[in-house]
Structures are given as C-alpha cells and as structure tokens.
Amino acid sequence: MRQLRKRISLVAALAAALILAGCSQLTSVVDQVTGGLVQHEYPAEVSEALAVQGDAVQDVGDGSPSFTDEEIAYAWEHLDYESYSPLDALGRCGAATACAGAETMPAPGEERESISDIHPSGWHSVSYDCVEGGSLYNRTHLIAWMLAAENANERNLVTGTRFMNAQLMLPFEEEVARYIDDTGNHVLYRVTPVFEGSELVCRAVQIEARSLEDDGAGVSFNVLCRNVQPGIELDYATGDSWEEGTSSWTDSWDEDASHWSDDLDWEELLSAL
Questions:
Q1: End-to-end CA distance of the chain, in Å?
Q2: pLDDT digit string (tens) for 204-224?
Q3: CATH code for 41-247?
Q4: How many CB atoms lie within 10 A of CB 76?
Q5: Rounded distance, CA 74 to CA 53, Å?
Q6: What's the chain's average pLDDT?
Q7: What is the pTM of this model?
Q8: Nearest 5°: CA angle at 116, between 112 and 120?
Q9: What is the rounded CA–CA span in Å between residue 65 and residue 221?
Q10: Which residues face 224 on adjacent strands?
Q11: Do 220 and 212 form a contact (C-beta atoms < 8 A)?
Q12: What value, to the nearest 5°, has the Cα angle with vertex 117 and ends 205 and 176?
C-alpha cells in the first residue's frame, strides 16, 4: 500500500509538471509510471477477438460461454445471486456476474432511479450532432437494469458509447430478458469490460450467457461488443474524443484544457512537486 501511494504521488507530480509545460504526452508518461500496477488479464481468445479488425460485435472463440463446472454448480445453488468486482486502483470496473431470473429482475411497476451521480472511469459529458440523442457516452450497465434492477452501483457502470450501449449490448440483454419472461428459467450471465493497460475507458465488453434449466438450449452465447461510435474517434486512455478527420490534440486542445482545469486539484498537484 505504501508503494502504491508513492507511485500515485509520483504520477501527480509528473502530471502537474507536464501540464504546466504544455506537454501533450501526459498519458504515455502516466502509463509508464503505472505500468504493471493495475493490469487486467483476459483469456487468450478474448485478446485474439479484440485484435481482429472486424465487426462491432463478434463471437469470442466458437461463441460458447466459458463458465466452469464450479461456476454453473454455484449458480444452481444460488439462483438469485449477483456479484460485482471491486473497482481497481484506477477506479475501473471488473467482471459482473448474475444468475438472472424473475427474482433479480425489476418488480412490476418498479422504475429506474437516477444514476447521474456516478462518474465511471474515463467519463466525459460530451455531445455530437452525429450521435443519436447527442450524448456520446452513456453510464453503461454491465448487468442490464432489466436483468438485475441495479441502479447507482459504481461497480456495475462503465463509460460506454451510446452505440455500444443501445445498439450492440441491448439485443443480447433483451434476448435474455425475453427468455426468462417466457420460461421462468434462469440464465447465468457475465459481462467483463476489456481494458488495455492503464486505459480508463474499456475497449469492449465481453458478454457471456447460458440458460441453466435446459443446459444452454435456450440461451448460449459469448460475444465481444466493441466500445465504438460511428463518426467519432476515442482516446481510450483518457476518455477524450473528437470527430473523425480532426486532430485529437490540436483541434480539441481548448476542450482538453477545460477538462483539466475543472477536474484537477492544482494545490494538491503542486504540493507534490
């Protein structure tokens, strides 16, 4: 813990020095200092799927979920359980798992509560004309509200594009919800945000699902949904964004500077020098 605090203090000092110097390489230096500190590991087939420049949604491996026999047995013994990984040192979510069923879904007439107080890692409030609804980012549930009725749970919310949230993830969430409504059965469901290095915004989410009572005959998939938005480029390290065809550092410099001045505690940073 003492070593972690020293590293974080060093990051703060470097950040202040680089910002005051007008340096645009802050992200790369922070990556070097925090390298290996909060690395997430993923199965090889997930990394392979992410490396393929293909569709926005694609199967992981052969498309079969990778739940172990022990995980399936645990779900059978706990038909309404939910599990959310603690945030890491950078405030990023890990895997979220649920045995989804009527017990975990919203009660009839239950309404969603506000989640606007949650600011997931890499969060920015930014709008573009080319994005439906305007806002680029959604506070994206890992386990969908329709499946777990979780509201402002910081361990279940990531910074996701509207395209990933409303176009890519939603069909799979609705498939599971319909199956539960139609059969009364349960679905073992896991969503894992996929980060690269110390980036604050996930590159994708992996969604796995397997219906329990019929051994996967009703629902079975393992897919990767990319965190992308047509017409917009993302800096996954920081959450900054810009329209395709513009420069991330020159055309958006004023916007970036305003983010820094609003978000940073200058006295704390300068005192670390």
A1: 21
A2: 999 999 999 999 999 999 999
A3: 3.40.570.10
A4: 13
A5: 36
A6: 84
A7: 0.78
A8: 110
A9: 6
A10: 58, 206
A11: no
A12: 35
